[in-house]
Amino acid sequence: MKQAKFWIETFLRLILLLVAASIITFALVNAAPIDPVAAYAGGENTFSKEQLASIAAHWGFDKPPVERYFMWIGGLLHGDGGISVIYQRPVVQILCERAGNSLLLMGCAWVLSGIIGFAAGIVCGLYPRSIADKLLKGICIVLSAAPTFWVGLVCLSIFAVALGWFPLGHAYPVGLTPDQVTWGQRIHHLILPALVLAVSGIGNITLQTREKVIEIMQSDMVTFAKARGETTHQIITRHLLRNISLPAITLQFAYISEVFGGSVLAEQVFAYPGLGNAVVQSALSMDIPLLLGVALVSAVFVFVGNFIANVLYGIIDPRIKRGAELHD
What we know:
about 325 residues; mainly alpha; about 80% helix
């Protein structure tokens, strides 16, 4: 019974989030100063007034915003997200194609930032004020302040142009169709943008983990463990990891929304065909159906990340799960 209640509440929260995200996105798009018909016609507009009116009627721009929103919702409930203005294809089809590329890029960057940041934070916390601690802390502060697009341009200049180790961009070699591309080629094109996207999250996780490690290593619990004769390895495995895991997981899953935001810039720099690239193109061209579709997908990403974090809390620290059961 409790499991059914939990899943029903989770599903309802997801629905409310998607409704709120769609309303806010639709309102912001309609409040934008860009005319969607003029954006569709292009900079050198040679269309007559009758042709522009026909374009507006074809895409539904001549109808009131509220009516257009409910028309879009009605189509979405039947699995129709509309037709992309710039790609002239169904939005659902475009999202399915690009979501795979973005998930691969963001997933790799997210995992890399978590592993590298967590490991670096432990090293800094175990050896505070050492040369390694000062060096890693300085690097993390610089990386946290560096814009993603700037890091991407620097990495492209060094590793792609000067050294030639990686391609300049794209998800696979130009001239090949997706079914002709090998996984080795995909990974080769993925490494550099994934590392650039991971950079922005490494610093925060490292610094947060460092402070937590120092706090725990100076606690009475660790002092008592040392008095019992436990080695550093035993202290780390028995006392340290579990106590620093929850804050690190909280920060890492909160970073999911930042990963999606950073992917917009990274995909532009590397010409990577993902959702981030689609956001920019749809915003510049006022492709409202595609923009709404990307907004809903991004909301699902963030919701799923937070949901997984809540589940992991109960696995890592059973006290949280027992506390929730007592509260119910």
